[in-house]
Inverse folding.
């Protein structure tokens, strides 16, 4: 069914141009309808979007349920995301089909928490014996990202 729906997908390309004649601005909008022939190129993007929607709703739900003065909800999504993402990646990740892997890890866990990606990257560095890079990754992501958030505030 998804294949049928995707085969009906039409992409609209919009080109907006601004033309100045004297002190007048003329806006020219050209909209072109194109049928997409190769839908397989869109499947990974749709998988990431669907996973992202699920992860975002799950994260929002945790924030609604856990409403305290301390950011426990953030800790909960980070620790749950790290444990589940690590478990799934190291148990099944290499055997997963690429689109499913993108759906789960890029989409769902990406929207649920970015801490899971940071943790998996750090574990990979430790497993590879790159201890210095692992420590550097921890310091950069912990210290510099918090510093960046302070600067952005």
């Amino acid at each position: 069914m998804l294949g049928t729906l995707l085969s009906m997908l039409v992409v609209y390309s919009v080109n907006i141009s601004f033309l100045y004649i004297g002190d007048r601005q003329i806006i020219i909008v050209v909209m072109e309808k194109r049928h997409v022939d190769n839908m397989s190129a869109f499947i990974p993007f749709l998988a990431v979007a669907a996973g992202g929607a699920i992860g975002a709703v799950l994260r929002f739900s945790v924030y609604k349920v856990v409403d305290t003065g301390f950011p426990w909800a953030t800790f909960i999504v980070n620790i749950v995301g790290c444990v589940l993402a690590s478990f799934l990646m190291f148990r099944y990740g290499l055997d997963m089909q690429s689109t499913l892997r993108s759906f789960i890890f890029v989409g769902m866990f990406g929207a649920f928490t970015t801490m899971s990606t940071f943790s998996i990257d750090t574990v990979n560095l430790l497993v590879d014996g790159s201890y210095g890079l692992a420590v550097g990754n921890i310091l950069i992501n912990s210290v510099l990202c918090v510093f960046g958030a302070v600067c952005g505030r």
